[in-house]
Predict the structure.
Amino acid sequence: MTLLFRWVKGFPKNDLPKKYSCVYCGTPFDAYPPDDKHDFATRNEKDYEDHIKVDYKCKANDCGKINTIYWGYCHAGAIAIGRFIK
Ligand SMILES: [Zn+2]
């Protein structure tokens, strides 16, 4: 159980930055977590009760719109696996 938990915690960090694309124009952007704990990224505010909202401004000159990413913190490794794979 301890090993499983550590693997889950380390897994998303190996996959950073998260690759997203602007929902308005499709321009790709890199999303980095706001801290060490909140390292599960989602666009859905309801995915994680404990999350940090980060706004990313699109880099495209003719767009510049805000894309919001919610960085979730998983308190338990077992829960983290289920939510991450979904
Ligand atoms: Zn854009």
